[in-house]
Structure formats: C-alpha cells, structure tokens
Amino acid sequence: MQNTNNTNETVGSFQWVTIYKAENTLEANILKGLIQTSGIECQIKGEMLQGAMGEIPFDQTQVSVQVYAIKERHARQILVNYQQVKQSAPDWVCPNCNEHNGSTFDFCWSCETSKND
Ligand SMILES: [Zn+2]
Questions:
Q1: How does pLDDT run across 92-104, given as a tens digit for each residue?
Q2: Distance from Cα 98 to the centre of ligand 1, integer Å
C-alpha cells in the first residue's frame, strides 16, 4: 500500500500566518524575539524592502511577523501583552525638530531634546 497523501495532513497547522504588521524591521525583530522566547517559531517577511525605502510606497515597507497557524493563538496573546505595554507609553514627536521618536526614547534621537520639555 502506498500512501501518497501523507504530506497534506498537517498543511493547515504548519502554514505561516501573519499575526502582526510591524512599522519597521526593528519592531518586527523585537516581536520575533518575544515570540521565540516563548518557544514559538517565528519568521519575518518583507524586511528586505527596507533597503529600498524612499523608492517604494510606504505601506510596502511594512514588515510581517509570521508564525505557524498551529501557534497563532499563543502568539497573539504575546502580541496583546506587547501592545498594552506599547500603548502605555506612546510614541512622541519632538517639540524642537518635529522628529518622530519611539516610546522607549527619553530624548530625541535627532537633537537630544528631552521628551518632557
Ligand atoms: Zn528633536
């Protein structure tokens, strides 16, 4: 008896699904690290486009964070935690030079103006 169908049985569970579209490669890698810390395999799609920024539309520079479908639920719980932390400290715009700064920066990365000035 030949079983030619055995490779199809687990396809649904082992397909990559996008669970998050990161704003940039940095954020995608932070999430990848978080997810992998929990023992979930994770990959990033689209980060190669970052090198061509400026020549392609902004929405195409987004980076997809992907996990296997079987781990999707677990990974999304990690994301919810991440987003709660992120929202508690929103990104900010420098009052001096109008540069956009990530929530983890206390000083403008461009002109070093303090966040609270
Ligand atoms: Zn600034």
A1: 899 999 999 988 7
A2: 6
